[in-house]
Structure prediction request, 68 residues.
Amino acid sequence: MKLSARNQIKGKIVEVTKGATTSHVRIDIGGAVITASITNEAVDELKLAVGKNAHAIIKASDVMVGVD
Prediction:
């Protein structure tokens, strides 16, 4: 699989929580955890499950930074 997104971070799925239409998939990337919100259909099609390896692919046009 090749993608244009440059921010591809490999990790391991540590939690999949399904809601009515959307799932939250938590991926451990070496101590930090990234959470993705994707459709339940995508979870099923990709056969996502705790313990499987996965890539967090981040594609954004802007990154915002805030401070207190």
The chain has one helix and four strands. The CA atoms of residues 22 and 29 lie 22 Å apart. Residues 16-58 form one domain.
